[in-house]
Amino acid sequence: MKKLIGIAAAASLALVLAGCAGGDGGTGAAEGPKALDELVVGFAQVGAESGWRTANTKDIQASFEEAGIELKFSDAQQKQENQIKAIRSYIQQGVDYIAFSPVVETGWDAVLNEAKAAGIPVVLTDRAVDSKDESLYVSFLGSDFIEEGKKAGQWVLDEYADVTEPVNIVQLEGTTGAAPAIDRAEGFADVIAENPNLEVIESQTGDFTRAGGKQVMEAMLKSNPDIDLVYAHNDDMGLGAIEAIEAAGLVPGQDIKIVTVDAVKDGMQALADGKINFIVECSPLLGAQLVDIIKTLNDGGTVEPRIITEETTFTQEQAIEALPDRQY
Ligand code: AHR
User: How far apart are CA 43 and CA 29, in angstroms?
Assistant: First the structure.
């Protein structure tokens, strides 16, 4: 684990340890708490690349509205320079807190130091940054992506436990340099390494989009006639792969098995329909916990530096059962 190791905590609002800090502890509450309707939070979102992202944006906006806290929102269209610009603009506007989901892991120290110099606490949501200086952010709220990759790998390991021939796996990676792309690949590779028959024969980025997944899968099908399984780093790329597989006259879920991460409604429907074989959940519902972190900091409390989201996995039967109540 590169960052913030070993501070795992189950996701819950109770993670927040209100009232523990002496002074402002970098929380920005030195002058005493502000009324919630006076607080301003700037949120720099990655983009709108996937169903997961859309659900995450909706949940964050709805949670702040419900809490009566002003949220300034920007969409970086998956470009780091746009996110840096948005953060600089929040610093200039003198917001009380900044939250963001970094499009890629590296390259944040300069802008985060600017936020620190301006006394604006930063909360990372969903994705981590790769920085040696952990004082640049107050907390990182989000999934354990390595664990997600391991869960995907474990399903593959079990599914092919009795197979004695090579299993050809292709991987549809998320955005190059993004924490979930790096970590989901790492967790998966670690687990499947236990069986030498399981081989990732090709791995390409589909940038977490459906169109990207489709395009990459089309090319992979042309260059590899014997693909047994697709491991897609999110549902959207898996759904794009389904389109490419069907267009090639093959049956997704049967001729080529598919494992994805996220469990958004469209992915769950494809799992229920037997076109995807297994989904590892990644929850986009981070809004309530983020609001709670902001409230605690505003009250002069401290928060855990790492808050891990609770998640599960879905088989076809479990997807059929869960679908009617799925919120996103
Ligand atoms: O960072 C979370 C990932 O980003 C989701 O798995 C993916 O769908 C999104 O684009």
Answer: 19
Residue 306 C-alpha to ligand 1 middle, in angstroms? 19
Residue 80 Cα to ligand 1 midpoint, Å, equals 15
Q: Which of 53, 143, 236, 308 to mutate to test the pocket of ligand 1 (most atoms within 8 A of CB)?
A: 53
pLDDT in tens, the chain (328 residues): 344 433 433 334 434 443 333 334 344 445 679 999 999 999 999 999 999 999 999 999 999 999 999 999 999 999 999 999 999 999 999 999 999 999 999 999 999 999 999 999 999 999 999 999 999 999 999 999 999 999 999 999 999 999 999 999 999 999 999 999 999 999 999 999 999 999 999 999 999 999 999 999 999 999 999 999 999 999 999 999 999 999 999 999 999 999 999 999 999 999 999 999 999 999 999 999 999 999 999 999 999 999 999 999 999 999 999 999 998 9
Dist CA 199 CA 169 (whole Å): 6
Residue 33 Cα to ligand 1 middle (Å): 34
DSSP 140-190: EEE--HHHHHHHHHHHHHHHTTT--S-EEEEEEE-STT-HHHHHHHHHHHH
CB of residue 282 inside a 6 A radius of ligand 1: yes
Question: How close is the Cα of 46 to the center of ligand 1, in Å?
Answer: 9
- DSSP secondary structure code for residue 13 in this structure: G
- DSSP annotation of 245 reads H
Domains contained in the chain, CATH given: 28-142+284-310 (3.40.50.2300), 145-282 (3.40.50.2300)
- Assessment of whether the complete model's pTM goes beyond 0.85: yes
